[in-house]
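Case study.
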Amino acid sequence: MSTNAEIKFGPFPITKQFYLVLTHAVHQVFLKTQHSFGVVNLKPILPGHVLVCPLRPHRRLTDLSAAETADLFETVQRVQRMLARVYFKTDRPEDGGSFTVAVQDGPESGQTVPHVHVHVIPRVAGDMGEGEAVDEIYVKMASEEANVGGALWDVTRRPEPGGGMPRVEDACREPREPADMHAEANMYKEALERVQ
Amino acid sequence: MSTNAEIKFGPFPITKQFYLVLTHAVHQVFLKTQHSFGVVNLKPILPGHVLVCPLRPHRRLTDLSAAETADLFETVQRVQRMLARVYFKTDRPEDGGSFTVAVQDGPESGQTVPHVHVHVIPRVAGDMGEGEAVDEIYVKMASEEANVGGALWDVTRRPEPGGGMPRVEDACREPREPADMHAEANMYKEALERVQ
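After joint prediction, the assembly is written out as follows.
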């Protein structure tokens, strides 16, 4: 693995200040654990589409320590319970809907930001239309907007999606205002207090 | 969660004998850990497409204990290192290619078999063609063939894919012979002995 100094997350050099920048400047982070954080999106594919990431800016899933790996996916589960409460109105995720949980682990699989991030996307019947449109979620997941922490991005410096993935320009997915994302993050913070 | 007695994995009622059936009758399992196992596919989407599952037949990711969750994703990482050695010819996955790592967590996200399974799919540039064809991997992942442990299935009883996902009938993905799958499983077992 290359040294951290060579890695950027959007316009931000990834340094020990990374997390501070993310939390205090952007207000999109709704959860921080010992090794992980959860962040809302600038252009969620579906309502509740969030990212769960390790605090350390690892490029690849195989770079995480055992403690970081355990914490990352326990955080995914906790976020699923929270999202189930918010979007499915239930304490039991299996009663209300499903989740797409996916990691694009490397550029050939569609990863654009070289910082491991787990997509967690609440799913309900018909949410992406019927027939082949259902799978459009994966096309959108491969777009650069779905990979980012929203306002972190300098639009002049966004990378093209890797792996030959098409760039999705969807008029229905307008970037949101920072205040909207902050409000969403706050809603999730409150909901997290009510789940294990 | 419903009682286990109501759950089937393909034609097999899921009982405490589940794992024994899987290992001794089918020969597709290439790795068993304390809480997880890895299994080859009847119709892999791409070479090296395997599934990593908890030994206990949990329906949903949020049903796994902390120990099971940690073990499941540590096993995913170990399998990635093994697949990198076999398919990318490197000990460092990031040097050779990428991975699609995905869980369809519930029927509305395309899960057909009610037993948590993590798809681990090696990816290299151009492996799914160019342009929009790149994302065809997700359409195929939603097909019933990609969700199964191969010969476990009684073709007369295969469920239709959930969540409105299209059924993929790809002439290039003929079911393999049990001996071929057994040979693949053995190749992975040997490769696992050389990775951490």
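Observations recorded in class. The beta strands of chain B are 8-9, 12-13, 29-32, 36-40, 50-54, 98-105, 118-123. Chain B has a mean pLDDT of 73. We will return to this complex in the next lecture.
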